[in-house]
Amino acid sequence: MDNVFIPFSSSGLPQGSKLSTYLTSRVPDRPELSSALSGLTLSPAGKGRGLGPSARPFTPESTANGSPPQSAAAPAGPATAAGPPGQEAADAAPLFEENVGGTTYYFRAEDAAVQKSAEPPTITPPYTAYVAPPARLSDAQAATHPASFFVSDQLREAILRQQHVLLMQANPQAFPGACPSTRSEDLPTEVDNYHELCLYLPTEVDNYHELCLYLPTEVDNYHELCPLEPPGQPHKSSTFGYVTSAYKATNTKSGQCYCLRRIHGLRLSGTKCLQLVALWSKVNHSNLVTLRELFTTKSFGDNSVVMVYDFLPAAETLMARHFSQPPQLNGFADPFQDPSIPRPYSAQKNAVLRQQNALIPEPLIWSYVIQLTGALRQVHSSGLACRVLDPSKILVTGEYASPGGSDRLHINCCGVLDVLLFDNNATNPLAMVPHYQQEDLVSLGKLLLALSCNSLLAVQRDNFSTSISIVERHYSADLKALIMSLLMPPRPRTIEDVMPLIGARFYQQLDTSGRLAERLEDELGREVQNGRLFRLLAKMSAITERPELNLEPSWAETGDRYMLKLFRDYVFHAVTDEGRPFLDMAHVVQCLNKLDAGSSDKICLMSRDMQNVLVATYAELKQCFQRSFQEVFEETLAKEDAAAS
Ligand SMILES: Nc1ncnc2c1ncn2[C@@H]1O[C@H](COP(=O)(O)OP(=O)(O)OP(=O)(O)O)[C@@H](O)[C@H]1O
What we know:
- Residues 543-645 are annotated as: Knob domain.
- By secondary structure, this protein is of the alpha+beta class.
- The protein is 39% helix and 12% strand.
- The protein has 20 helices and 16 strands.
- It has helices at residues 18-26, 29-39, 109-117, 135-144, 153-167, 194-199, 208-213, 274-281, 318-322, 345-354, 362-381, 416-420, 433-453, 464-474, 477-487, 499-502, 505-543, 559-572, 585-597, 618-644, and strands at 4-5, 95-100, 103-108, 218-219, 222-227, 244-251, 257-263, 291-297, 304-310, 316-317, 328-329, 332-333, 394-397, 408-411, 602-606, 613-617.
- The structure holds adenosine-5'-triphosphate.
- Adenosine-5'-triphosphate binds at residues 228-229, 237-239, 244, 246, 259, 289, 309-312, 315-317, 392-393, 395, 412.
């Protein structure tokens, strides 16, 4: 088969034209190709191997056990009684013989049968392509988004939001200390180096508020501090009783992002509490935000303690997710929105009852139960207690699947109370842990009750019976039993005792997680194909329109490269009959995939002046592509070698 057909103006090409250069450059390939093709035969294996320009004569390679290669196993002729030299005459089994590249191989009939059966039962094509999602996924997917070359909009947005948060920086207008240049009028007149600049602190701070807005450029091994809360009047944390701030920061050594939890104005009275920090740093669980280290610093202008946690981009608190929506009734907001404002009993009770309109689906609550108990189990088995099972200290990530499918909880700020309330005089700092573990179980019960009633008011003693009746009416008996057992005596003694109350829900959660993993794998599969096409395009762009290669300015416009340029025009610059741009992603993807696979389909390429038309197969274009990129690549290496020597 001719590898290039020139149906028009085959003999009329002007000497030195781009097409004629290409054709000339292809001539030396033809004898090789035709000799290789002529070697392709259906006769016994061993003849005609080595397709392609770089083909070498076939030499039989011994396998590990010295037998002939499997691919040469087809019996070449009738069984003969003749054995190879040195073969025992007593060996009566008939032998097959086969000549491969001048070497004669002998093998027995049963070996031939084994070799025959060793043929793989299935074959896969030498290319990859976009594949349809599995049937069980496509049913669910069809409802949410149509078939696409890319990941779903929902997942893309979620991932982009996370990456966006990781790149977020402090706004110098809101935090004047964030960028030293914005405080240039306050800077010391002589700053010798950057490090000194980083250590610069405002000398005159009018008030504490201003100090809280000050962001040092560097704190210990962390820089690029970005506050995670909006600037405002500093307030004491309801959980810790201290003013605290959370920052995203980058570790100067690893470049990774962490969350710095700063406790303002705290001076540690000893270093014994670091033992607990060391214990916490060893507790790893997917539903726990890992504590990495603790250090003290004066970089903020006061004595601060900073606890470093893993950073979960785009995480929101359980409080923000479920308890921050103002309760709505007939379009009017509840006037008693703030639970800290005292209100008459009936108003509180009504508020609890009103929240029933937007109750959380039960599968989501069970998903939370399983995640939280999993984390608690890990913490308790490490000899520690959480002490912070509060909606403001539980982070939620993942929102790209149906509710309950992907929402992941992470218990945050573990160890903060251990440090804040550390008793330096205690002989055993872990003595109270069993008591705190019991408190964790009660906190879990309260949290589940609040989630089931969709209101923080639900856990107040006065509202308890109303809240339990809401759970009874809207949820399963299992959920009510779990909440009651956590809140009412006799309580479970350990977190392990809670497991039987979860029962078969655990399997349901496993199934949901498995389905989510399958869906994500399917989405990832599409991006794998996109990544492959991107690499193809990157190589293509490195070839086409290159101003020169190896001092040859016309390199990109001649030979193989000219074919690729025409192909690029065909893929991306196609026009309709009316001359309008033809933009079709399916056309682009199909052409690139066929090029990558080296398809034998033919393609009609037209020069830009429309005077010449070339018909080539994708396989030929692929050869042009590989040869051209190899040239560019080798030139790169040549330059590197020259620079090294
Ligand atoms: N490890 C973390 N990774 C990512 N974001 C976090 C992390 N820890 C906290 N945040 C975010 O920082 C913000 C503030 O967290 P913080 O725990 O201080 O909440 P808070 O509601 O201000 O509680 P408090 O009343 O105790 O001050 C929250 O929006 C939370 O999403």
